[in-house]
């Protein structure tokens, strides 16, 4: 196994036709700070242009896939001009992940929450440990989903069910997420075994034909995804200025239930 790219936040390994991208902030449950977001975007671009790679696996180190956006990144009040830069980096990562000419798999253990859940939804296939949990929990801190989740959830659930899931923001066990059509497979026993089985199935399939189908659909849907990402960027900036968001953050830090007032 060759290690081609290692930083403090992202690891890339390539073995044969399979690249594994690992989010590497286990001490924070792989929460996504600016460095990790930019690192992931850089790695995904590199892998996208690596001809010998056909399959890309996204996973998290330690106990979680990703707990979502890093709370410190959300508190960029000292220099609000940094926020659009962060959102642009998120959007670049999502578009790259969604449209790269490779087959992509998210291997989820532990939490896949907020932006972490969004990244998983941007991949072609999600295989989850049976004890893992999924949460589109932006609403708990007075924000809207970003990372293209409005696009991905509507495409999987339809508009009405997507809205209800976003507004409720409740965590789901892997089996519930599977029944809703948000997860493709729940590992019966070992996550790594289930992942490897799927990889081997794809490696023994006409991968180029599969990738061509992906490209046709991605090219068709890219304008809508770009529009949704731009709307999320504008909407998130507006939500960050609300009293409810400030209350949500304060409550999170103080480990109490927020008191929202719709302002």
Give a written overview of the molecule.
The chain has 263 residues and is of the alpha/beta class. It has a single domain, classed as 2-enoyl-CoA Hydratase, Chain A, domain 1. Helices cover 49% and strands 16% of the residues. The chain has ten helices and ten strands. The strands form two sheets. A seven-stranded mixed beta sheet has the order 1-2-3-4-5-7-10, with helices on both faces. The relative contact order is 0.13. The model has no long low-confidence stretch (mean pLDDT 94). Keywords: Lyase. This is Enoyl-CoA hydratase. One of its GO terms (molecular function) is enoyl-CoA hydratase activity. Its EC number is 4.2.1.17. It comes from Cytobacillus horneckiae.
Task: Write a short abstract of this structure.
The chain has helices at 34-48, 71-74, 82-99, 115-121, 149-157, 159-168, 174-179, 191-203, 207-240, 243-254, and strands at 2-6, 10-15, 18-23, 55-60, 103-108, 111-113, 125-128, 133-135, 172-173, 185-186. It has 263 residues and is an alpha/beta fold. The strands form two sheets. The chain has a seven-stranded mixed beta sheet, sandwiched between helices. A three-stranded mixed beta sheet has the order 6-8-9.
């Amino acid at each position: 196994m060759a290690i081609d790219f290692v930083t403090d936040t992202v690891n890339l390994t390539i073995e044969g036709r399979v690249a594994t991208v690992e989010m590497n902030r286990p001490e924070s449950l792989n929460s996504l700070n600016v460095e990790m977001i930019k690192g992931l975007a850089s790695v995904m671009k590199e892998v996208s242009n690596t001809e010998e790679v056909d399959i890309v696996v996204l996973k998290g180190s330690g106990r979680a896939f990703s707990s979502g956006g890093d709370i410190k990144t959300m508190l960029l009040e000292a220099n609000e001009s940094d926020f659009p830069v962060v959102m642009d980096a998120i959007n670049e990562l999502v578009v790259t992940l969604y449209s790269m000419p490779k087959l992509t798999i998210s291997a989820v253990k532990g939490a896949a929450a907020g932006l972490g859940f969004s990244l998983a939804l941007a991949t072609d296939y999600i295989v989850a440990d049976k004890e893992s949990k999924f949460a589109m929990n932006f609403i708990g801190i007075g924000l809207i989903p970003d990372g293209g989740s409005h696009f991905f959830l509507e495409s999987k659930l339809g508009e009405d069910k997507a809205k209800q899931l976003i507004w409720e923001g409740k965590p789901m066990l892997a089996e519930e997420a599977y029944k809703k059509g948000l997860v493709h497979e729940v590992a019966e026993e070992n996550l790594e075994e289930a992942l490897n089985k799927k990889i081997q199935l794809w490696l023994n399939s006409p991968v180029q034909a599969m990738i061509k189908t992906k490209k046709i659909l991605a090219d068709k849907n890219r304008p809508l995804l770009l529009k949704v990402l731009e709307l999320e960027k504008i909407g998130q900036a507006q939500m960050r200025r609300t009293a409810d968001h400030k209350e949500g953050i304060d409550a999170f830090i103080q480990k109490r239930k927020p008191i929202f007032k719709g302002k």
